[in-house]
Amino acid sequence: MEIFQQILFVAALAATAWFITKRIQLISRAIKLGRPENRFDHPDERLKTMLLVAFGQKKMFTNLLVGSMHFVIYAGFIIINLEILEIILDGILGTHRLFAPYITPIYPILIDVFEVLAFGVLAVCVVFLCRRFIARVSRLQAERHRELRGWPISDATLILTAEIFLMIAFLTWNASDSVLRDRGVGHYGELQGIVPDFLVSQYLKPLFLTFSDMALVAYERTAWWLHILGILAFAIYVTYSKHLHIALGFPNVYFSDLQPKGEMQNMPEITKEVQLALGLPVTTDGSQVNDNGEQPVEVGRFGAKDVQDLKWINLMNAYSCTECGRCTAACPANITGKKLSPRKIMMDTRDRLEEIQRGWQTHGNEYKDDKSLLNDYITAEELNACTTCQACINACPININPLDIILQLRRYRVMEESQAPASWNAMFSNIENNMAPWKFSPSDRFNWADQVNDAK
Amino acid sequence: MTQEVKTYTVPTMANMAASGEEPEILFWVGCAGSFDDRYKRVTIAFVRILNHVGIKFAVLGPEEACTGDPARRAGNEFLFQMQAMSNIQVLNGYNVKKIVTACPHCFNTLKNEYPELGGNYEVIHHSQFLQGLINEGRVRVKDGQSFKGRRITFHDSCYLGRANKVYEAPRDVLAALDADLVEMKRVRANGLCCGAGGGQYFKEPEPGKKDVNVERVEEALGTGADTIAVACPFCMTMMSDGVKNKNREDSVRVYDISELIAQGQGL
Ligand code: SF4
Ligand code: SF4
User: Fold this and answer.
1) Strand, helix or coil at B227?
2) Taking the model in full, what pTM does it have?
3) CB distance from A450 to chain B under 8 Å?
């Protein structure tokens, strides 16, 4: 019986590892669709940013209450991994609480900490569900934000509910285990005097006192299996969900923009053309430098029409987005009822990538469809509404830059498709002909100086 | 008794170069500062302050051209770089080292975006420049000027604040006025855009519930301020239009910080 469980367990573990590896390969292949961009400079500053913003959750704490609640889930997630290590080893070796006899004095302290965290996670997940469905926090409502309709809301609800069940499984498992130990049943009894009652689960013991020994063992086994299988399933599920941020959030912050937020990236391929047009010496060959800082690669389109015209960091941003909507809640265009939502820009980019992934899976890796991010996902109306105010970048807890994607799509529309709104075209020609965005004669530019000595 | 007659001068780079001189700073006026009737008054106020403190400055005058900011942000990179490179040729030709400008968009572009195209200058915004003058005691608002008891609220411009983290300089300048500085709900890094950036100023807004400047002005009026201070030509227009939209133009005024300082100095 024991060996049967062990075999089953190892099989489950191997299957999970296989699935996750496949998913990682697929996702990294999708991210590599993006254009090269060097984000390996200034390692010290990057590390510091990652420690502060990702590990330290600095930007989450701009809202102290939500920040603290998220921190409980985050800390719980990281620390409970220690417990999972024991569970996995128990599962493989067919042991029971493997670590307990070796670290007897600190074992109960550890488990107490896990239990408190588990209870904390449970409580926070309940509060988060209430925020969504009872307090109806505006940025999380599908009625107000069309990008949340359907799957995104289910995804969020599913994961919160799953976490609640995982934590209940963990706590009741400990409680039933304690009762079995008290009764001296089988190997459970061997831990008498080594493993005491734990901080939270002791209060759940009365639930199990009426159970027969057999029923109790059955419950203990079921809870144990549910807990660990739940965790393995969670690990696979995460790769399909906005919860991928628990892994990608860290590299995403490490590789985030270091330049001032107002700086828009230069296009070297255009510099060359302009230098030629102005009769200046050409200082750039217009090629882009790849991540090793060497080999020049081919110049693509001016601006971006689809995901492969974006940079790899834009695509990593899309997979990292937590769909929290802080960007959208800060966006002046969205606040005043325009169609633009920076969260939707990120979700569209990811949806487009996943569509391409599905294409690869059904038609092979060379498959291309005739859709594109621009128009099929993101419309001109959304793009044109952006004031480039950078509030979205500032608000994002993991340093995602939706504005960068918006700007690259605008570039494509203006430079490749000549599709700017008419009044922008007028502004462009004014700058070209009058050196100012308005239709004034350049020779009048200095007329204001005639008035410096006029009375106020 | 003779009335002191003040005369202000506006030297150009071309004149200075002709007489073999180099100014301490170049005042980059910007398109709005040159052509917009309302913002010309800001340019003039700032020039009067420069004259008053006796700093050796110059402007490009007719040689100045749009930095290209609205073109770049609307997506026309080609036009932006044309503007940038011709401007850089002019600036480098005059050996310009230090630039001050009253426009956060010019400020951001000259400071952050020109270096990659060969234009390297020390660029400061006029709020930082005024802050320096106040700290050095070169500008002191006279006691008993008209600011006591007035409520002023400051609207952060995106390209000064979030883009370049200049939050305190304009507030320090306003603090020198001895007025009552009241803050809006969304300030500094969380400040709400006036709605004009990214080329929006040059076209109709997309359909929505309301215009961004109206939302922002409602917030400003909510503080009970009678003066909305700005530090950007686009914010100036957007806030003024918002005040009009709310029919408050009789009781609420929009001023650039340099105008308030000039007023405080009696310039
Ligand atoms: S930069 Fe554009 S998308 Fe981002 S908050 Fe501002 S208006 Fe919205
Ligand atoms: S881009 Fe950032 S702020 Fe916006 S939804 Fe995604 S994670 Fe949240």
Assistant:
1) strand
2) 0.94
3) no
